[in-house]
Amino acid sequence: SALAAKVVQAMRVPFDLDGITVTVSTSIGVAFYQGGPETGPDVLKQADGMLYQAKRAGRNTWRAAELATCIG
């Protein structure tokens, strides 16, 4: 979660692109895997769901699945 917050904060800083000031928004979804029956696609699907929750919250944010929802 600390890394996701740092990425969102860093992406908020406007930057120059060929003389044009550009700003972008960032939305991040995080899912945790600690072993178990879930497959890579299962964990990716969970992260994707968190991504869309972040977007619905107004973008420039992140959301993480609770650990319990990802491991069982």
- Mean pLDDT equals 87
Question: Strand count, sense and closure of the main sheet?
Answer: 2 strands, antiparallel
Instruction: Describe the strand arrangement of the main beta sheet, using strand numbers.
Output: 1-2
Task: List the total number of helices.
Answer: 3
* Global geometry: elongated
Radius of gyration: 15 Å
The run of helices and strands is HEEEHEH
Number of beta-strand segments: 4
Class by alpha and beta content? alpha+beta
Strand content: 15-25%
Which regions have little confidence, pLDDT < 50, spanning 5+ residues? none
Task: Give the fraction of residues assigned to helices.
Answer: 40-55%
Can you describe this structure?
44% of the residues lie in helices and 19% in strands. The protein is an alpha+beta fold. The strands form 2 sheets. The chain has a two-stranded antiparallel sheet. The chain has a two-stranded parallel sheet with strand order 3-4. The two termini are 20 Å apart.
Tell me briefly what this model is.
The protein is of the alpha+beta class.
Please supply descriptive tags for the structure shown above.
two-stranded antiparallel sheet, 3 helices, 44% helix, elongated
Structural topology:
Elements (H helix, E strand, L loop, with lengths): L1 H10 L3 E3 L2 E3 L4 E4 L9 H17 L4 E4 L2 H5 L1
Parallel strand pairs: 3-4
Antiparallel strand pairs: 1-2
